[in-house]
């Protein structure tokens, strides 16, 4: 199932190391971007990438400070990623591409599509970050995220407690212990927790931390979405505790030519709970909008 991830290419993009994976020789190109914290390409896209490769040229990437894309220095915030993604496409030799992103990856994809619609055929935004003006406990969360050393301490704590990492993952999957490939997914997530600790990285990505302001979100795509000129599919698991239906519905209503789909029996990482249905949605949507 994970043959896609048995071989890779290591690139230098925006001054740092980036590991990329490739599958499929025919069809339109698509770039898969995973989420933050303990996500990796091999974890999130383990079933989606090989299935999409049947009729697409699939490019998958470990985002900076994830998987094989480390070490990185400096601030990797929204401004960084809006530059990074274009340089990544150049390094991959992709003039135009469809972007499929989960959580952080979806927020990054939307930012780039707003800036450079001439290089993006379509966007699939799954449980996207950067949607909505406020979050619950906004000020308290901002204070915790900005507490010096806390997020690095969290990385070390998680690295030493694989049972806790497993329990948290299972608790956040609608399928729970019945999830496909559960033990393989847990192994990848635990390995990522240990890598973050070994490299002295914070548990949350800079993009996620800097998206928070004290009284409102510093990154909220919704006001900009009326200017989005790219066909967009918005996807949310009906059990997603991080991205609410109201926020995603508002995003879909603001962006011209959007579609919104809610996946039943799925949490935030829909590719773990519903990999086959996620793949079908992506394939059908791209076939309908990409020439």
Summarize the structure.
The protein is built from 12 helices and 8 strands. The protein has 291 residues and is of the alpha/beta class. An 8-stranded mixed sheet has the order 1-2-4-3-5-6-7-8, sandwiched between helices.
Write up this protein.
There is one protein chain. The chain is α/β, with parallel strands linked by helices. The chain has a domain at 3-133 and 218-289: 3-Layer(aba) Sandwich (Rossmann fold), CATH 3.40.50.1820. The chain contains 12 helices and 8 strands. The chain has an 8-stranded mixed β-sheet with strand order 1-2-4-3-5-6-7-8, sandwiched between helices. α7 crosses α8. The longest helix is centred in the middle third of the chain and has 17 residues, at 182-198. The two termini are 29 Å apart. The mean pLDDT is 95. GO terms for molecular function: hydrolase activity. This is Alpha/beta hydrolase.
What are the main properties of this structure?
291 residues; Rossmann fold; 8-stranded mixed sheet; globular; Epox_hydrolase-like
User: What does the overall shape look like?
Assistant: globular
Number of strands: 8
Which blocks of ≥5 consecutive residues have pLDDT under 50? none
Name the average pLDDT. 95
- In CATH, what is the class of the domain at 3-133 and 218-289? Alpha Beta
Succession of helices and strands: EEEHHEHEHEHHHHHEHEHH
What profile does the largest beta sheet have?
A: 8 strands, mixed
User: Span between N and C termini?
Assistant: 29 Å
Helix content range of the residues, please?
25-40%
Oligomer: single chain
Rg, please? 18 Å
Strand order of the largest sheet: 1-2-4-3-5-6-7-8
Query: How many helical stretches?
Result: 12
**CATH homologous superfamily annotation of the domain at 3-133 and 218-289:** Alpha/Beta hydrolase fold, catalytic domain
Percentage beta strand: 15-25%
Q: Which CATH architecture of the domain at 3-133 and 218-289 is right?
A: 3-Layer(aba) Sandwich
Alpha-beta content class: alpha/beta
CATH topology of the domain at 3-133 and 218-289: Rossmann fold
